[in-house]
């Protein structure tokens, strides 16, 4: 029987109560990681923690405002003190934003919401964990992007710019932290079709574009977005979580400063 990929590693997941954060936390726990989940909704964090505990995993939760830099830094320092350092960090924080509005009708404030929200949270969390990672104990920072980083499509100005920014941030941060033995890898899934019913992020995000075509969100995803991918389907939560576990492990130890393309072939890098 092979050794769990993340055995002996400590991992913090920001947005740990969300669809991607929760799915990844469960896989990380299965692979032996000690989990620290942070997020804004305690009930969602508790639900993920119960699943992990039921499977024999080790998990702690904390209600943390990811936009409060001092709070995030205190939380990261507490994790490092308890676990002897931080081995893996994933930013799975979601920021609701506009998709579907063209430039003529898009306000500056709407344009800036995803750019400021996603990149601010990524900067704050990365800056908080980096001092507690690496050197003789390899560290990994995982980020999340979207196909909007490379698509030429209307109605996703703020979304696309923020996604491209996250990918650029990841590459540049990898260059800075390599000397400290810290890898930085961005994961770029497409829209995820099997998010749990309790998670309304995907439904709310694509509601406007689905309505414009007189479709339900599910129809828009399965009959629209999925058909633009080579595989004619969208990635699953399990696929994203399993990829994250591999990239966070020593088995992915030569991978840094790059984007793992989980778009099903919607983008061909």
TrEMBL record:
* Molecular function via GO: oxidoreductase activity
Keyword Lipoprotein listed? The answer is no
Taken from the record, one Pfam family name reads adh_short_C2
Keyword annotations: Oxidoreductase
Record-linked PANTHER family: 5-KETO-D-GLUCONATE 5-REDUCTASE (PTHR43669), ALCOHOL DEHYDROGENASE, PUTATIVE (AFU_ORTHOLOGUE AFUA_3G03445)-RELATED (PTHR43669:SF3)
User: Hey, which family's this protein in?
Assistant: Belongs to the short-chain dehydrogenases/reductases (SDR) family.
Name the chain's protein.
Answer: NADP-dependent 3-hydroxy acid dehydrogenase YdfG
Q: Which organism is it from?
A: Kribbella pratensis
